[in-house]
Design a protein that fits this description.
Layout: H1 13-17, E1 22-33, E2 61-65, H2 68-78, E3 89-103, H3 107-112, H4 117-121, H5 129-140, E4 145-149, E5 158-163, H6 164-167, E6 173-176
Length: about 180
């Protein structure tokens, strides 16, 4: 028996192809444990653990944040295995220039998909099923990334979920010296 909260939304190619993509240009940030410094641009961890916008099978994903502070908070809230002090973490800066981004902070886009902001951030039984379905459909219909509000309680700001296999040949994301 299903739960009443389960979204019955069917995401099809036609719906996603009608969504207006946005361009994103600017600096975005990613924080990793300092011992993983050389892997800051590598989505290796995504193949080991499912995330809000990827499965382990769809693992070529980089999660970036719009500020170093948000990025650090996102990372340290997830990885409590390293003492939270700046010397244990490294925040890299990425120059991003993408032209086909699905903006899930736009109320019009959410309405077209029949979802609410709460649907994207509320942990519920079933885990990340809804958000992973959205990401799968976005990447298979050619979106390079998804712009979303942080899902962490008490934090504000946006995250950019970049599908590296879609942007691999566009050079739309480049690490720069921090």
């Amino acid at each position: 028996m299903g739960h009443s909260w389960v979204k019955k939304t069917i995401f099809d190619d036609k719906t996603f192809q009608k969504l207006s993509p946005e361009s994103i240009k600017g600096r975005w940030y990613r924080t990793v444990k300092y011992k993983r410094l050389k892997q800051v641009g590598n989505p290796l961890g995504s193949s080991m653990v499912e995330g809000r916008y990827h499965t382990t099978a769809e693992d070529s994903v980089l999660y970036l944040s719009d500020s170093p502070a948000l990025c650090m908070s996102e990372s340290t809230k997830i990885f409590q295995t390293v003492e939270i002090k700046d010397s244990a973490w490294y925040t890299a800066t990425f120059k991003v220039k993408l032209s086909h981004v699905l903006n899930l902070t736009d109320p019009k886009i959410l309405k077209r998909l029949s979802i609410t902001p709460a649907d994207l951030v509320q942990p519920r039984p079933g885990g990340y099923n809804l958000t992973q379905r959205i990401a799968t459909k976005a990447r298979t219909t050619g979106f390079e990334a998804i712009l979303v509000q942080t899902a962490r309680p008490g934090l504000s700001g946006n995250n950019l979920v970049v599908f590296l296999e879609v942007v691999a040949n566009t050079k739309g994301i480049v690490a720069v010296a921090s």
